Structure to design on (1109 residues):
């Protein structure tokens, strides 16, 4: 009843091409954004620094992975490697360029990651599917290895775990979780809207054409080289920005071993659980994969307390998490975003089903 | 342990949980509560370091419970804990740190994540949060300088002292420093920051003594070390200092050493990956391997024997170890000693700040930790740990403590102590100077003013 | 001359390691070939299989009695996987199936620790993993009985699996199922049984791989990571070729050891962590379907 498009007419081209053509969507988005901006006044430091900040950052990375995998159909397993590029690039920009504003450094790190992404995306012109996925693992291992081995990247720090510099924008130092959250939120919102726009424009259509049938896309005059590398570049840009934020706003240390293959896999899970080829799904998937183990850990500890062996609890958590993933795929293989879409469709008819 | 027994334990646990839940809903909260002091337990019970995590944190939890049961807490203050699973993952441990930071109206006093990467991940936060980072024998080495790192403690020793102690041990075996010239020593290490941590000190000593030092990294998880050990054979190494993590890497190192015919009594393991579990993974090939010990294993120590009696014997079922046979192993005993440090620090804090019988805050606890003193033999005996750890005391400047170790050898079933006394670096002053130099460099780079320390 | 014999030593060591990689990769190929699923859980199955085997022995069964019990257990795991994970997911996309096996990984890893605890165990196969003296004296090469054993086991498994796929009715059914589930179903191939059989066989392969790896590295959690070593072997060999896996395993093993020993020190070592993958990419650029993979013809 409330979610209905009837009666909303688009009378100009501009109206027809806006991001959220439905009034309800615009309203909903505004409310969500408003809540997101105001939430630090209600949430404590734990929620901000241990839940919301990593969630937003990993959503951004998942979004990058989704561009590559969901929209352009290129299975990749190197996202944590590109995150590492972003993190170390950001460290070096701040270290070597005096008074560089943090946001500029972050964007430049994204561009660095994009360039690396193009190089490692080259095999995609010849390889596809699972073969490509395993081939992109080469980038994951090679990047982490070289960041670890070549001292210049770490400014010859003997320990190899570098304390991230402070986040300074326009002379203001962003210290508290609340301030960091806002920085992260701003960057994530801008990039997410950008992604949404790209996905529905000619760029995104190109990606999807390549995904659905690359030979056909080529026959229709699309340059495979350009489209695929563009997807790799943009996806890596998102991962790079995410990596910089992950190191600076979340971990507060820059080190190669934070960006292991394990993280790459987790990001892959986020995209598949969230829903391939959806912006919303990236956020939902990141939430599920990141927060569910934490939630289970808290839940089981509060239910069983100390009466059950904690080793048993930890193992049970793992089993439950795995079972949840499998159940999910069985009941909704298209991901969390699909559930959301179904809800919307129900709402459209509600309360008059027929 | 037979599966039937495991199942029994689980079932009784679940039943107990149910009973507790009912009890909790029925009974009203007790009035006039005993004062409590809360400790976080950042354990790793699943994943590749599960053997270490269950042993160490089992020891920690057992000692806290033991103090409650045996002594009614610390001067009447009951010790409680909250556990969080880190999976030895830096990102998850940061979440755990934030989650456990507050419990009710109490803030946590210390953080002891038991992993060098995990310690590094929070080392920048602890001062601002007023939390003591207790990195007992792991973590950032130059944090032993209390002027730069007031909130970080590395007792009883750090990695630089440890590598210097290993070289000192080798030197004694070889018959003097002058015999070391031209000897080839391979530092075979996991290819991470932790594996490279001892290198600054090791390179310095190698240069001074004329040792031919070869550094060979192993990429984690290290289940394949054929090329590394062939290189060692090719180099005709005299000794190997092994710096690994996880039973898989340790076991593979020992079996591969056997495959290339490298004598195991010329291999010296690091404390972190030098426990019974690592030797068992190496099977029969592990015999004669040398391992450095920071805290001695065994049940012969009165404290460990008493913990076993109070928490385990006669099916008391109050212990945290799933496998009670692991009481008295390296990891377990290290966990117990870590908790002894917590409790002693708490006791000191109560005394120093006139809060006997009351909970203390982070700053007070820090002072208590800095006042840790195991030099008094009577006190060590009272605690039941005399001989289990080296006598040492901390001070404002010295956050390392003893810097000494024992050497053990695996006889196929258990460790035998092979050194008569605790031994440290040949030249402790030199190691200390390296540490302070490194810490001062860090302080300068990060604009930290050195704390003024009388000693 | 000394250098040459060292070269041979490294080469032989690498080839022998390569066989160990192939053993793990074999499990992947088996399932991929028959069901088009990239079974991410293979590493976890290796851990679970050998942990169960050792656990059963701890309960008091002798080696030869524990083996069939462990095999039976793996068959059960295979059947359960088919029933509760794969069957509900018939005709889903490759990504979904991959994800399901990732979920399975969590379940198996958790279950392994739940059932058998976290103690590290040692597996004594009664085969010495030390250089055979007379081989060393004669040729200067380091070959242990365990290496020879691994080689024999790998050969037996490859030959029997190759025969299974090419000569038996079940094998033909397997290949039909791999090509197209629904088409195979429609011509009356019992999908259920075929999948169950394949997963059970993969479980047995996991057990064998786990026993050999466990004898060398100890029976502990890190065994789940042996799967990572199998991935480049898989790409080079092609996901669907049983003999390809062996050739690729030897290739990966030998080349990574040679590169690590001769070029690693130039870069501070650790090169072997990425070299096999880079080599795999180079291979793929020449032959995108792997060395022995089936050529895929795509039509618009």
């Amino acid at each position: 009843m409330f979610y209905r498009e009837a009666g909303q007419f688009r009378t100009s081209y501009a109206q027809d091409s806006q991001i959220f053509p439905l009034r309800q969507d615009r309203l909903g988005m505004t409310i969500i954004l408003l809540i997101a901006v105001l939430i630090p006044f209600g949430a404590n430091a734990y929620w901000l620094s241990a839940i919301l900040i990593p969630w937003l950052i990993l959503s951004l990375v998942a979004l990058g992975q989704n561009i590559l995998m969901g929209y352009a159909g290129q299975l990749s397993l190197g996202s944590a490697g590109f995150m590492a590029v972003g993190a170390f690039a950001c460290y070096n920009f701040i270290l070597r360029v005096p008074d560089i504003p943090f946001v500029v450094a972050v964007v430049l790190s994204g561009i660095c990651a994009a360039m690396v992404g193009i190089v490692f995306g080259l095999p995609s012109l010849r390889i596809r599917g699972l073969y490509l996925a395993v081939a992109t693992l080469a980038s994951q291992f090679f990047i982490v290895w070289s960041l670890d081995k070549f001292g210049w990247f770490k400014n010859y720090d003997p320990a190899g775990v570098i304390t991230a510099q402070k986040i300074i924008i326009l002379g203001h130092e962003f210290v508290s979780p609340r301030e960091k959250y806002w920085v992260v939120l701003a960057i994530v919102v801008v990039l997410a809207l950008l992604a949404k726009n790209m996905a529905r424009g000619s760029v995104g259509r190109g990606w999807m054409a390549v995904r659905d049938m690359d030979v056909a896309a080529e026959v229709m005059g699309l340059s495979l080289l350009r489209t695929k590398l563009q997807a790799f570049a943009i996806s890596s840009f998102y991962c790079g920005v995410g990596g910089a934020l992950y190191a600076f706003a979340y971990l507060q240390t820059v080190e190669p071993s934070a960006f292991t293959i394990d993280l790459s896999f987790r990001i892959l899970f986020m995209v598949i659980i969230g829903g391939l080829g959806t912006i919303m799904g990236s956020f939902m998937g990141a939430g599920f994969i990141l927060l569910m183990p934490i939630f289970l850990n808290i839940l089981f500890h509060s239910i069983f307390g100390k009466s059950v062996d904690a080793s048993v609890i930890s193992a049970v958590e793992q089993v439950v998490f795995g079972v949840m993933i499998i159940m999910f795929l069985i009941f909704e293989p298209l991901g969390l975003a699909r559930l959301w879409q179904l809800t919307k469709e129900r709402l459209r008819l509600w309360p008059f089903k027929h | 342990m037979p599966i039937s027994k495991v199942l029994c334990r689980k079932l009784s646990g679940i039943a107990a949980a149910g009973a507790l839940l009912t009890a909790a809903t029925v009974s009203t909260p007790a009035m006039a509560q005993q004062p409590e002091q809360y400790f976080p337990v950042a354990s790793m019970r699943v994943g590749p370091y599960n053997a270490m995590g269950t042993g160490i944190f089992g020891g920690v939890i057992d000692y806290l419970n033991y103090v409650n049961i045996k002594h009614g807490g610390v001067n009447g203050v009951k010790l409680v804990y909250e556990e969080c699973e880190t999976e030895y993952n830096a990102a998850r441990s940061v979440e755990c740190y934030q989650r456990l930071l507050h419990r009710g109206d109490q803030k946590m006093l210390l953080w002891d994540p038991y992993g060098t990467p995990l310690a590094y991940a929070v080392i920048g936060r602890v001062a601002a949060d007023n939390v003591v980072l207790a990195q007992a024998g792991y973590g950032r080495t130059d944090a032993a300088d209390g002027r730069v790192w007031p909130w970080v403690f590395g007792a009883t020793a750090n990695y630089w002292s440890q590598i210097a102690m290993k070289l000192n041990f080798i030197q004694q075996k070889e018959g003097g420093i002058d015999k070391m010239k031209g000897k080839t020593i391979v530092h075979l290490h996991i290819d991470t920051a932790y594996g490279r941590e001892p290198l600054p000190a090791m390179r310095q000593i190698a240069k001074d003594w004329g040792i031919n030092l070869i550094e060979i990294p192993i990429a984690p998880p290290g289940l394949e070390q054929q090329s590394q050990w062939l290189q060692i054979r090719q180099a005709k190494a005299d000794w190997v200092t092994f710096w690994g993590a996880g039973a898989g890497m340790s076991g593979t190192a020992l079996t591969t050493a056997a495959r290339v015919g490298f004598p195991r009594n010329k291999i010296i393991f690091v404390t972190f990956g030098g426990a019974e579990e690592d030797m068992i993974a190496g099977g029969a090939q592990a015999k004669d391997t040398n391992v450095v010990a920071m805290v001695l294993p065994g049940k012969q120590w009165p404290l460990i024997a008493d913990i076993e009696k109070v928490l385990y014997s006669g099916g008391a079922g109050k212990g945290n170890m799933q496998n009670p046979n692991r009481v008295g192993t390296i990891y377990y005993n290290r966990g117990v000693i870590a908790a002894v440090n917590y409790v002693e620090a708490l006791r000191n804090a109560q005394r120093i700040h006139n809060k006997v019988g009351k909970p203390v805050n982070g700053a007070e606890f820090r002072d208590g930790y800095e006042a840790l003193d195991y030099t008094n033999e009577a006190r060590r005996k009272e605690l039941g740990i005399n001989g289990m750890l080296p006598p040492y005391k901390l001070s404002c400047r010295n956050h390392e403590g003893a810097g000494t170790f024992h050497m053990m050898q695996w006889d196929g079933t258990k460790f035998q102590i092979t050194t008569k006394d605790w031994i440290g670096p040949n030249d402790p002053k030199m190691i200390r100077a390296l540490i302070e130099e490194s810490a001062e460099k860090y302080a300068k780079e990060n604009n930290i003013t050195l704390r003024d320390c009388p000693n | 001359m000394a250098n040459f014999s060292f070269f041979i030593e490294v080469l032989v060591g690498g080839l022998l390691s390569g066989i160990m990689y192939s053993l793990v990769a074999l499990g992947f190929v088996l399932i991929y070939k028959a069901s088009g699923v990239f079974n991410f859980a293979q590493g976890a199955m290796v851990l679970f299989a050998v942990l169960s085997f050792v656990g059963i022995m701890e309960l008091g069964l002798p080696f030869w009695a524990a083996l069939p019990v462990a095999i039976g257990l793996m068959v059960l795991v295979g059947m359960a996987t088919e029933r509760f994970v794969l069957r509900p997911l018939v005709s889903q996309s490759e990504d979904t199936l991959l994800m399901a096996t990732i979920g399975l990984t969590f379940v198996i890893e958790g279950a392994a620790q739940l059932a058998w605890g976290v103690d590290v165990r040692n597996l004594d196969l009664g085969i010495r993993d030390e250089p055979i003296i007379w081989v060393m004296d004669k040729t200067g090469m380091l070959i242990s009985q365990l290496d020879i054993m691994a080689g024999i086991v790998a050969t037996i498994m490859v030959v029997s699996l190759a025969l299974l796929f090419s000569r038996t009715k079940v094998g033909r059914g397997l290949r039909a199922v791999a090509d197209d589930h629904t088409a195979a179903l429609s011509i009356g191939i019992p999908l259920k049984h075929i999948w169950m059989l394949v997963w059970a066989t993969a479980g047995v392969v996991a057990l064998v791989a786990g026993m050999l790896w466990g004898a060398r590295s100890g029976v502990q959690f890190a065994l789940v990571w042996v799967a990572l070593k199998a991935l480049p072997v898989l790409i080079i060999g092609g996901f669907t070729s049983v003999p390809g896996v062996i050739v690729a395993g030897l290739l990966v093993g030998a080349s990574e050891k040679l590169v690590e020993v001769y070029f690693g020190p130039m870069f501070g070592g650790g090169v072997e962590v990425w070299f096999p993958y880079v080599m795999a990419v180079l291979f793929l650029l020449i032959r995108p379907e792997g060395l022995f993979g089936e050529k895929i013809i795509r039509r618009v």
Remarks:
- The mean pLDDT of chain A is 87.
- The longest strand of chain A covers residues 167-169.
- The CA atoms of residues 54 and 111 of chain A lie 21 Å apart.
